[in-house]
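All the exercises in this workshop are built on plain-text protein records. Sequence and backbone structure share a record, each on its own labelled line. The question running through the whole workshop is how a given chain folds. The record below serves as our worked example for the rest of this section.
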Amino acid sequence: MFMRAIAPVFSKGDYVGTIETVVDFKDLNDYFKKDGVVFYVLMKNEYLPIANFASYQQKLMLDNYTIVNQEVNGLDFIKEINFQGTGYLKRGDYYVLYTPIVDINGEHVGFFVLTWSESLSLASFKG
């Protein structure tokens, strides 16, 4: 599975076109994993019928979301959390950062979630 992003391009306030990028989830998972961060993509369950070429194990299904980029559910605590907007929180020894995913029409379709251990040094995030 992959992520596709489209953004408008403007020049001096005039719309001149769009730019599109496609990134495989595995590449994103690996990028964050090297620094000790786990990256999750949560898709609203109502969009599962659209992803008709993919199937997801029951263990990856949360109350209202499905983890679409991992094979292991490390978000067992998610049922206690009501993500809204962008934010972060601490659960036990882990930090959680989340931000909404919106489609081209501005509709909320899921969340990007990053988790990392409290023991992880902030220096790890410097490229």
User: Anything to note?
Assistant: The chain has a mean pLDDT of 81. The chain is about 5% helix and 45% strand.
